[in-house]
């Protein structure tokens, strides 16, 4: 099977997803840091809406089993691994409640025939929501509550032999360690050199690097970012300038449309706003080609 999702010039062809299922239905919202809109039944329907958009785009979904395993956040498949042309890297979660998720991804890659070129363990922590491909051989990592220096060094050891450079940027404190702030909470690539950003929290050096490389950086409306708990900015690129976002943020949508994007929306209050993860977090690209 072909694999590798680091090159954003290509459309999404294969992706891993997991339905919310019984694990989310039984989750205690206080324990999981889910917000007042938390509603597992609505979340299940909203997830199906997103899956339909992904399928209609032509991408094939590989479903992780959604067992009664207590792993409510495992639907946020983006965070637990990532896939390069050399193979998959399986990560080690920063959030304690998510520690058992990597086993699900190891099983998926075995089933898909994707080799695993490295796995983080022990005190090495990286969540893939903290990873952004600047180009196919340059991977940015946000060092913060979920991803640490030991994890960054482990990623360098795994990726350097494959010609991939890892560049680390520090994330801000924002509202503290219990909230979910990933690097991808602050930037969503819409095309190889275009992204939607929340500039006030984006690492300055990253903004500077992208600007130097000639990226077009669209500043997402701040009131919609705040009202959505950051989810207005969480936009999945299906193909360059063909994107998916949570419904209800018309000025963020209009900004992307004004820059040539086709924007599809789905209802995500119970799934995304409540559980702190949007369409990028709910999908783990395996192949762009
Ligand atoms: N990449 C992402 O931003 N993922 C969202 C994960 C949300 C989940 N409730 C978490 O706290 O890990």
Automatic annotation (TrEMBL):
The keyword RNA-binding does not apply. It catalyses: L-arginine + H2O = L-citrulline + NH4(+). Pathway: Amino-acid degradation; L-arginine degradation via ADI pathway; carbamoyl phosphate from L-arginine: step 1/2. One of its GO terms (molecular function) is transferase activity. GO terms for biological process: L-arginine deiminase pathway. Pfam families: ADI. The keyword Membrane does not apply. It is an enzyme of class 3 (hydrolase). Keywords: Transferase. Its EC number is 3.5.3.6. This is arginine deiminase.
């Amino acid at each position: 099977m072909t694999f590798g999702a680091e090159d954003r010039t290509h459309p999404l062809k294969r992706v891993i997803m997991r339905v919310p299922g019984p694990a989310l239905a039984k989750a205690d919202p206080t324990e999981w840091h889910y917000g007042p809109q938390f509603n597992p039944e609505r979340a299940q329907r909203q997830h199906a809406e997103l899956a339909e958009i992904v399928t209609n785009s032509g991408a094939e979904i590989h479903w992780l089993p959604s067992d009664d395993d207590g792993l409510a956040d495992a639907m946020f498949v983006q965070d637990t691994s990532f896939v390069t042309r050399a193979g998959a890297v399986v990560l080690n979660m920063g959030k304690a409640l998510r520690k058992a998720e990597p086993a699900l991804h190891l099983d998926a890659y075995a089933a898909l025939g994707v080799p695993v070129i490295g796995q983080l363990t022990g005190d090495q922590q990286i969540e893939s929501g903290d990873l952004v491909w600047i180009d196919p051989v340059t991977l940015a990592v946000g060092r913060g509550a979920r991803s640490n220096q030991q994890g960054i060094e482990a990623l360098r050891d795994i990726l350097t032999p494959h010609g991939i450079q890892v560049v680390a940027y520090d994330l801000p404190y924002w509202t503290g360690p219990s909230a979910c702030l990933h690097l991808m909470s602050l930037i969503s690539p819409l095309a190889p050199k275009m992204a939607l950003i929340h500039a006030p929290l984006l690492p300055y050096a990253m903004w500077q690097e992208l600007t130097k490389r000639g990226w077009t950086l669209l500043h997402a409306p701040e009131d919609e970012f705040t009202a959505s708990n950051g989810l207005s900015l969480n936009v999945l690129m299906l193909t360059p300038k063909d994107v998916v976002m949570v419904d209800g943020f018309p000025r963020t949508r209009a900004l992307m449309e004004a820059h040539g994007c086709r924007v599809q929306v789905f209802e995500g209050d119970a799934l995304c706003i409540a559980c702190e993860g949007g369409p990028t977090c709910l999908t783990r690209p395996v192949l762009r080609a």
